[in-house]
Amino acid sequence: MVLWSLRLKVAARGGSPSRVLRSMLEAKIKTMSLTPNDKLQFILGRRSIRVYAPGEVSEMAITQLLQAAMAAPSAVARDPWRFVVIRKKETLSAIAAALPNGGMLATAPLGIVVCGDLDAAHDRQLSYLLQDCSAAIENLLLCAHGLGLGACWLGVHPREDRIRKLREILQLPASVIPIAGIAIGHPGEEKEPRTRFNREYVHWEKW
Ligand SMILES: Cc1cc2nc3c(=O)[nH]c(=O)nc-3n(C[C@H](O)[C@H](O)[C@H](O)COP(=O)(O)O)c2cc1C
Hints:
The protein has two domains: 2-33, no CATH class; 40-187, NADH Oxidase, CATH 3.40.109.10. It is α+β, with helices and mostly antiparallel strands and 207 residues long. The protein has seven helices and five strands, in the order αααβαβαβαβαβ. It starts with a helix and ends in a 20-residue tail after the last strand. Bound molecules: flavin mononucleotide (FMN).
């Protein structure tokens, strides 16, 4: 849409299309860069979206989601996160049935199960693995929001029954622990940006 209107503007200007288009695109990109306030609004705009409109999630979007996830901080950069990308309806429904609060996964076009490989984690510590995977999950959720998609974190770890069922469904190797599912699709509901900021949770200098 933006490109199309730029093309029309170039034609209207009667200039050399490639040069004019390039300079207009550069100007557009400059104005699109977010101010600090916009960046905060962007973060506050990420909400759990549990209703999905029809439509697949493109391969390009899936790649971007995974790139964002794997840009997260991880202890000693060990990157113990592993991802199972699921688009088959049958598998999405099986996982939805295994997660008491994850029924909406059956209605989503895409699920990503974020796992951690204990053998790859710093000092083989579960705590590092969980922190690393959680950082990756939040990055992925923010990326989904940035792409105009809707997503929701579905709790798996530390519920033993959920872990066991996901291990079975996804045929995970012994050292790989499923941490969370993420349901992703085109948003079928709208939510206001918000923070749950609470002054009482903040201590300055000392508790
Ligand atoms: C560890 C964890 C587990 C969660 N599990 C579920 C879940 O199983 N089902 C669900 O609908 N939402 C789940 N959520 C999403 C929370 O319910 C949601 O983030 C919270 O209500 C705040 O709303 P917001 O994400 O819109 O800001 C989970 C979130 C976290 C961090």
